[in-house]
Amino acid sequence: MSKSTSKTQHWRPDKLGFFVLRQADGIIVKASPYFAQLLAARNEAELIGRNISDFLPESSPLLAQLKAELKIKEIVEGMPAFFRKLNGSVFRVSIGARQKSHSQFIEAVISDQSQLEALENSLKLWELKFKCAQDVTKYAFLMIKKDRIIEASENFFLMTDYTHQEIQRGEIIIYDLIEERSQSAFREKISALNTGNRFSGKFSFTLKSKLGVEIETEAAFALLPGDKEKEIIGVIADNSRIALLESKLYQSQKMEAVGKLASGVAHDFNNLLTAIIGHSDLAMVNIKQGKSPKNDLEIIQSAADKASMLTRQLLAFSRKQRVEPKILNPNSLIQNMNKMLRRIIGEDIELIARLGEDVKRIKVDPGQLEQVIVNLAVNARDAMPSGGRLLIETRNVILTQPLKSHKAVVDPGSYIGIMVDDTGCGMSEEVRNKAFDPFFTTKPEGKGTGLGLSTVKEIVDQNGGKICIESELGRGSSFRVYFPMVSQDAEEYIFAEMHQDLQVGNETVLVVEDDDSVREFAVRLLKKLGYIVVEAKDGKGAIEAFKNREFDFRLILTDLIMPDMNGVELVKKLGEMRENCKIVYMSGYRPNGFIKEILEEGIPYLQKPFNPLDLANKVREALEG
After folding, report:
1. DSSP line for 504-551
2. Which of 60, 156, 336, 342 could bond 56 through an S-S bridge, CB–CB 3.0 to 4.6 Å?
3. Cα(578)–Cα(546) distance, rounded to whole angstroms?
4. pLDDT in tens, 191-205
5. Three-state DSSP class for 424?
């Protein structure tokens, strides 16, 4: 049997989406019943004689790609593509094709990948849930293989003082973490897993950190099913910081809340993505018709702002957001937020800013203060579904005695008060008592994360302030935020709205980013600003570009997390080729591990998502630094 025959003997027209194309013009000359079924046709006769492009998304290069591939190989296998059914719906496929010698026809088969895509999306959701579970619990997770720890959660590193790098190098043996008096019992539990038991049950032992600190813990270990090399997953609770009963209760509440969080985040993001995708299509139609896409672009920008705020809200709640306190005048920041706040609350709510004269300075992270005001504005908007009035007020506050309001007590001192009042539905005493609780929401299932007000309190506490709440049913709500007054002059802070000129330059910049859309955005913007830009989609491409002595690179803008070679490894290799080249890192991942180390070293860093102003300023700052 020939090589060609052996590879394609499974192509059965009655079982696969089989079809034959005329190479010259892409006309379908033969089709299997299943191919017709995939395209929602009544039968194969409905397809024969039609061009394959009738069943592809607009401007699809599939036919040209097949022709090109078949010029250099006998068989094409596993090529990803999208097909369009007769009813207009688009679905994902994997395509294989062949062309016999001197034949004018291309034989092809497609397999529907929609179910696989659904499974991939389901897996991503479960990964999100598991990651959220790790982040919101105080437990430490770890995986063991051949007595060595091969993976661990962030809480494990906080508990033991070991590092990601030590795990990656395979340096941590589990028994080295167990205090001597617990060794025998611990080894007995792990040995039982290696000899047939699948679950260790809960047991207590004394763990020893890298610095020699003894920690009383309770743990459970389990053998992962179907794993020939016997990988063991473990969960460890630190009993020296929290009582066991309290830990159980807290964890059960959190695990229940994780489901609400995942549901709320999925709902909010799906709504935002629907708006972005829908108005992108409408903008394209308007452009083709010679009409202005301005209105659709403004809605897209608003949806993107909200998506960015949602991710910042999650980061702030988990304390993973980078905090950079600055001395600022809150009046200036609130004035600059006016346009964005009006977009968020809608036209049926009147926005009033009553900013006090001679308001003093506070020391707070500007981005976090924006988040506080936005979250309080969104909370007010949701309390006024039929419209109303939102008042934002600032003033100097001098307290000569403690101020008690609900659960908060503000000590005597000098403060800047930021008040956010609404004319909404108000809160009952029960709701008011839970208002700042993580994951608590009065919205229907799946319609909110329950993190808005808890994030506000987290940020206010983190910046040394206090927040009070006054509310009654039917009489609206009033939130009063107090930040300590400082005497220093305000530092310059640029609010991230595109209402000012961007900084330009003429240096040569290398942009390295594996995501095509992000790379295209960065390259187009930097070229518009006057820079000479060379782009690469991975480390290998960047190294090839650097070898070209035609370019005098002055700055490397690189993603941190990329396939095959991360940004730090790439910069090290490029640094061996040319010195004195400035660096700007960017990433969409939360700042921990080696990203956190980079921040601590002071290397310029851009957190995704970023806008043109962020990118222009960071590049200029790095080049002039």
Report:
1. ----EEEEE-SSHHHHHHHHHHHHHTT-EEEEESSHHHHHHHHH-TT-
2. 60
3. 8
4. 888 777 777 778 888
5. coil
